[in-house]
Write a structure and sequence with these properties.
- The chain is 18% helix and 26% strand.
- The radius of gyration is 17 Å and the shape is globular.
- Strand 11 and strand 12 form a beta hairpin.
- Strands 4-5-6-3-2-1-13 form a seven-stranded mixed sheet. Strands 7-8-9-10-12-11-14 form a seven-stranded mixed sheet.
- It starts with a strand and ends with a strand.
- The protein is of the alpha/beta class and 246 residues long.
Length: 246
């Protein structure tokens, strides 16, 4: 089984995948997956806090997979090894914890997933670079090139898209005023790039996080924003009955 949710921010919101609250977790096995759509946060300080939460996650029976959000420590994340995983490249954090990299395509339980993490931080002015903010929250030209190459290799067809932020035509892309000016050369407007992907890619569903709520936006294809909910992919319609439509 594959479950998907939004941001967990380490101790702030990880309760939603604690089996005491996430009751389905009590029946999951090593053949099952919980995927987090960014702002994982359990690789943050490289110290005791990380070890505590990573030890706890590793003790759970399922595989925890995550894409990066904007609130990640990219300096620490990059210290983990890149390995081959389910047809793509991923960083292995622990035996059953993997960081799904930008622009990769994975085959998990027979379904294909295109992943592209990252997002704008709308509160940059309150953050300090390499302390609690990193330019790498936005994609680089290299990551964009990698994504296009991998999608071409898959004939621009996947089952699901996992991102943290949204594409340009999604209403949430205008929620905050954002600019590329703090990032410098080599970085790409993620809203614009995801819009390019959306227009060309054939897919069933798009999942994202970042906006701290559970919403559905439909524009030919659905984009499902997750935060509080943990949805089961195989029974998706049952889990979406009371989501807010935007």
């Amino acid at each position: 089984m594959i479950y998907i949710t939004g941001d967990i921010h380490r101790e702030q919101d990880i309760h939603k995948i604690n089996p005491r609250e996430f009751e389905a977790g009590n029946t999951l096995t090593e053949n099952d997956y919980v995927i987090i759509c960014g702002d994982f946060g359990c690789v943050w300080d490289g110290g005791d806090g990380d070890r505590f939460w990573l030890n706890w996650l590793e003790s759970l029976p399922w595989n925890t997979l995550f894409i990066d959000g904007n609130h990640e420590n990219f300096d620490v994340l990059k210290q983990y090894p890149v390995v081959e995983y389910r047809g793509g490249k991923a960083r292995q954090i622990r035996s059953n914890i993997f960081h799904l990299l930008r622009g990769e395509v994975y085959t998990i339980d027979g379904a294909t997933f295109f992943t592209f993490g990252g997002a704008y931080s709308h509160d940059i002015q309150y953050r300090t670079e390499h302390v609690n903010w990193w330019k790498d929250e936005l994609p680089t030209y290299h990551e964009v090139k990698n994504a296009l190459h991998n999608l071409e290799a898959h004939d621009w067809k996947v089952d699901y898209v996992l991102s943290h932020d949204v594409y340009e035509s999604h209403p949430f892309s205008k929620r905050y005023e954002v600019s590329l000016s703090p990032y410098g050369e080599g970085y790409v407007d993620i809203h614009s790039f995801l819009e390019t992907i959306k227009k060309k890619l054939c897919y069933k569903e798009w999942f994202c996080g970042h906006y701290h709520g559970d919403f559905i936006y439909e524009q030919k294809h659905r984009c499902i924003t997750l935060f509080n909910r943990v949805v089961l992919l195989d029974q998706l319609e049952d889990f979406l009955v009371d989501f807010e439509t935007i």
